[in-house]
Specification:
Blueprint (H helix, E strand, L loop, with lengths): L1 H14 L3 H18 L2 H21 L14 H18 L2 H11 L1 H6 L5 H29 L7 H30 L2 H17 L12 H7 L3 H12 L6 H32 L1
Helix pairs in contact: 2-7, 3-4, 3-7, 4-7, 4-8, 4-11, 5-8, 7-8, 8-11, 8-12, 11-12
């Protein structure tokens, strides 16, 4: 069947005038239309971030008074943490969508269609990035309504949105790779449940590094969630530290490239197996 797929799709895809970019955008629109038809999903995905934002913001607001905290308000400090946590949480479930497409036969139908293989993965990455950016903007707006201030202005907030989208790409690509490898919902659910909170608490999402135990501070250096937080908080200061933004942002982009490459490798392995 693999040979038939290649003979049916390869020449036809090469002959298509649209090209990979146009096909990627068409498939991205398809995924976004599915998202738009489920507004309840957007509301549900925002419920938990709102709880974290306002419950933690109210419960620990006096933490900002601790020596060494270094921030004007705890809510303002918390917003980037909630944005990053939400980006990870939402994209960790991308593999479930991949599993659904495999089970419904949608993915196999695309494999015999005149569509470039890269466009299928590009669409997944683009749609996840757009939805993550939208969610991040909404959380930032809710934080502002609650009284959070953003000294870094529009540039700092832009770094926060872009960096959280890149981090979402990392976890979304890994989740897709896992979905194509194990093809079991229980495995994805178990791994996601196991990883989310440890990754969050082993970062500066809720507490500055200066107030963390030493072993958590050391562990956080290898946590991509913490790279994102360090980059965004450096950009959101009154006087941004662009060297820190470039360093942590570069590491995050490199990890995203590796994750997308892994997803592409597992996709090709899946293609050969059908």
């Amino acid at each position: 069947m693999t040979a038939a797929v290649q003979s049916a799709a390869g020449p036809a895809a090469a002959a298509r005038p649209a090209g990979a970019l146009r096909q990627s955008w068409y498939l991205t629109q398809r995924q976004l239309m599915v998202f738009a038809k489920q507004p309840a999903y957007l509301v549900i995905t925002l419920i938990q971030p709102v709880i974290w934002l306002f419950l933690f913001g109210a419960l620990f607001k006096r933490m900002a008074e601790l020596p060494g905290f270094g921030s004007g308000s705890y809510l303002g400090y918390l917003v980037p943490g909630v944005v990053v946590m939400s980006a990870v949480s939402a994209n960790m479930w991308a593999g479930m969508g991949t599993l659904e497409e495999i089970e419904r036969g949608t993915l196999n139908r695309f494999l015999v269609a005149p569509v470039r293989r890269g466009a299928l993965l590009n669409a997944n990455v683009l749609s996840q990035g757009i939805t993550t950016a939208l969610q991040s903007v909404l959380i930032i707006a809710l934080g502002a309504l609650g009284g959070a201030h953003y000294p870094g202005g529009a540039a700092g907030l832009a770094v926060l949105v872009v960096a959280s989208s890149v981090l979402g790409t990392v976890f979304g690509a890994c989740s897709n790779a896992l979905g194509m490898l194990v093809r079991q919902r229980e495995s994805i659910i178990g791994i996601n449940t196991f990883l989310l909170l440890p990754l969050t608490f082993l970062s500066s999402a809720f507490m500055p590094a200066a107030l963390m135990p030493h072993w958590i501070r050391v562990t956080a250096r290898f946590n991509p969630m913490n790279w994102t937080l360090e980059a965004t908080r450096a950009a959101m200061r009154t006087t941004p530290d662009w060297a820190s933004v470039a360093g942590h942002g570069g590491a995050l982009l490199a990890l995203a490239a590796v994750a997308v490459g892994l997803s592409l490798t597992t996709f090709r392995a899946y293609q050969r197996s059908v």
